[in-house]
Amino acid sequence: MHRSRHTGHDGGMTDTGTRGTPARALYRRWIDDLWNGPADAAALRRVAESLVTDGFVGHWPDRDVRGRAELADLVAQTKTMFSGHLAFTVEIPPFTEGDLVAARWTGTGTSPAGDVSHFWGNDILRLSGTRFAEYWVASVQA
Question: In terms of residue numbers, what domain contains 49?
């Protein structure tokens, strides 16, 4: 198994996770199955059931989202804004510290009118058992 570590800004060692750990795999599913997954809310709810807890809270800069259904609805809304195409790519693979998982991604979306948008962001998610219980995102559009 591969384990990498780096020295944090305070000089302490930060665990960047083990290749294939459940937390890293869960984050890949967060991107691949949820954000790059189906467009309809019903299918997204089924995906969300396997990824987040009942009491999930997602913190976006402009609002909080509570529960699986609200998460699925928000993702479905986002996908309708880019009905031509929406895809996310993990730029910096997830790393972990305790019950937290963090990663950096890029996204590209094409509006129904054909306009292409590029954006990127950083995710931090808190695990509870085998699912995510809380989410913070910071993103910018180019």
Answer: 3-141
In this prediction, residue 6 carries a pLDDT of 32
- Do residues 132 and 52 make contact, with C-beta atoms less than 8 angstroms apart? yes
Distance CA 17, CA 95 (A): 5
What pLDDT, on a 0 to 100 scale, did the predictor assign at position 18? 42
| pLDDT value of position 85 | 85
- Strands (E) located in the chain: 3-7, 13-18, 52-60, 63-66, 85-97, 100-110, 116-128, 131-141
| Domains of the chain: total | 1
Instruction: Give φ, ψ of 31 to 5 degrees.
Output: -75, -55
Q: Residue 16: which CATH number?
A: 3.10.450.50
Q: What band does 55 get if pLDDT is binned at 50, 70 and 90? A: very high
